[in-house]
Here is the input.
Amino acid sequence: MSKKKILLAEDDVTMVSLLTTLLKMEGFSVTALQADDDVPAAVRRERPDVLLLDVHLLHQSGFDILDNIRNTKDIANTRVVMSSGSNVRDECEAHGANKFLLKPYMPDELITLLKKTIQTD
Here is the structure.
């Protein structure tokens, strides 16, 4: 069985390091983007099982990124888990996020949510 791929769009370098280590320890393949990378282009290139997307990136809005993904035919069905320190679950879901995770969260919460999201068709 091949490793499930997580694409990580997060601008906090400490969080990126921690998440990359955690996810790899849990058996995932992880690609972390730079804060201002073109996320939809990376989704198209990487074809992740899940995009873990921060709501507030350095110079980008996670909502705008998700809208772009949902409106782009070849990547519209990408599974997206959004996270934020603010409880914006309803807004994330309105934009088409599959799941939302409120920061700070426990590692087990993230792993369980990612596995459920991957299993969802």
The chain has a mean pLDDT of 94. The helical segments are 13-25, 39-46, 62-70, 89-95, 107-119.
